[in-house]
Amino acid sequence: MNCRIGVIGASESVENILKAGEHFAPDVTLIPCPFEKEGDMRDIIERNRSRVDGWLFSGPLPYELGRKYFRSDDNISCCHTAGAMLLVRALEVMHDAGRKAPRFSIDMYEGIIDISEVLSDTGLPLDEVYMKYYGKRFRVEEIVEFHRSLYAEGKTDGAVTAFRAVYSRLKDLGVPAYYLNLTKAEITESLRQMVEKIRTTWFKATQVGTVAIAIHDYETVLDHMNSDVQRERMEWEIKGKLLPLCEVLDGSLVEKGNGRYEIFSSRGQIHRHLGELENTLKEIKMTINLYGSAAAGIGYGETVARSRLRARQAVDEPILWDMPVRISGDEAGEDREEQREELDPETREKLKEVRVNEKTLLKIRLAASSFPEGTFSVKDLSTKLSVTPQNIRRIMGALSKAGLAEIVSETSPAERGRPGKVYRLVISG
Fold it and tell me: Which fold, 345-425?
């Protein structure tokens, strides 16, 4: 894959990046996009948007000025500095002025580097180094005046600036000015990171994606339909809600039967339209009159078969369905799972014996902590987690069998039937 990167910045900065990036060829094509003033950026971006896979700004300042012209799915980054050139410029000012201690003024966009920290590495006194930080709202003339007045008062031997417009203006005013650009090593590292970012995005966007949609407790839903006509009408309504989603995802819909459907698309399309997927699940839940729950498992992979398998595993994972969308093979999701609370080995072994998922127990424990004394009925937990009583009853029975929950009392039934059980978890933590 050839990465096409649009390089945005002042002309000289863009030229430096192009020169530093020559050794990336032929795998990377750098497209120069220099601008003279901020207002030029919008036209440059729109004119070149279709030609590039990502954008690299010459520094944090142009990045902050130009980021408002981009869409949320655009790949943008900027070159970062570690402060090496700041040390070089400080030594240049001292050399040109024939001094043994630095006397200069410097401006810097806030948040890039700590000037004092970088300069302190030299061991030189900083008593006569004047610093000015500025943010998104700044006036070029104000920065210029900061440098000019200090030089005019004889307090400095020159000015160091990372702002091209300030550098040019100071030169016109006769103030010795030094431009704070990036080193070749810094540019190379920024380019390398940008290339990796584009390739990762490209890989994800072109992966096959499958959305497996399942209506849990589908038999219960059908039982509440009074006739075959009602059942058929419900199924047509569900498909009527899935077809617009399928069109949004630019995918194809396959009906698997028994309340199960699959949509085949690409990772990029699915990722961009997760909101529409969640809204569709809510609409389906209203269609089935809240007797069941609708959930989706999303699977990504290099092949249809692999993405399909992951999607089915995600939708069938024995977790409580308070999470309507479950993604398998999603790095961010995997990172979150790693941060979850862990159970001790003995508890894990007991869960395996009764075939209850760890995440299910952790969700129940979190919910149980909100009840007085940690006791709850099937109805309490069902309401708290938006899960059917049948599922809660089955899970609590399994946990009791494993010795991870106990029955502490029984509730009196409001209607005829057996009294309900009140449970308490008995695991540690």
Answer: Arc Repressor Mutant, subunit A (1.10.10)
